[in-house]
Amino acid sequence: MKKMGANTLSYVVLLTMAFSVASASDPSPLQDFCVAVNDTNDTVFVNGKFCRDPKLATPNDFFFSGLRVPGNTSNKLGSMVTPANVAQIPGLNTLGVSLARVDYAPYGLNPPHTHPRATEILTVLEGTLYVGFVTSNPDNRLISKVLYKGDVFVFPQVFGSKPAISADVLTKAFQVDKNEVNYLQSQFWTDNHTY
What domain count does the chain have? Predict the structure, then answer.
């Protein structure tokens, strides 16, 4: 009987520990939202922006209609990015999320770039799109895939590459001669660590 009670107590302790770990999470934010404003009167400064009094928030602080309009892709890159971040939607301030619409002409591209504070998730709404990213050192590996309507791809915060990014893509992205791209790609070597 004593052993059975000890075993039951052990199971209860283990279950309690498991549930306490499973329900662990980040603490709640200090506020539900912080609508960004440029006026510094009667506001609070949070995360690089001033916050409007939450009692004065309106639906328009959380709304943006600009993504319904296709971007003009008649440019050298054949693409147009329409951002939807705190500059367009003040209610996004401090929420840690933003969005963008990217329109592409046939053979258009979005030049290589970084996202220093966020991971990007891309969904193809129409057509076919070749996407990829370069992993961080030491591998500098290109991870790429062709996406079709409805496909989703995640871009972590990463940037050199094996296999090399297509010289045609880099020539168009950086608006330079293909010989210049080939020269620049030849400058990268794998054993460049300093000790």
Answer: 3
Binding site per annotation, positions for Mn(2+): 113, 115, 120
Phi, psi dihedrals of residue 45, rounded to the nearest 5°? -90, 120
The phi and psi torsions of 152 (rounded to 5 degrees) equal: -125, 140
- Read off the tokens for 4: 């059975």
Same domain, 137 and 67: no
Query: Which residue range is the domain that position 81 belongs to?
Result: 27-110
Query: What CA–CA distances, in Å, run from 43 to 55, 61, 63, 85?
Result: 12, 15, 21, 20
pLDDT of 183 above 80: no
Query: Which of 110, 139, 174 is at the close of a domain?
Result: 110
Binding site feature residues for oxalate: 110, 115, 120
Q: pLDDT tens digit string along 104-124?
A: 999 998 877 776 666 788 899
Q: Which residues are annotated as a binding site?
A: 110, 113, 115, 120
Each residue's pLDDT tens digit, 155-180: 886 755 556 677 787 777 667 788 88
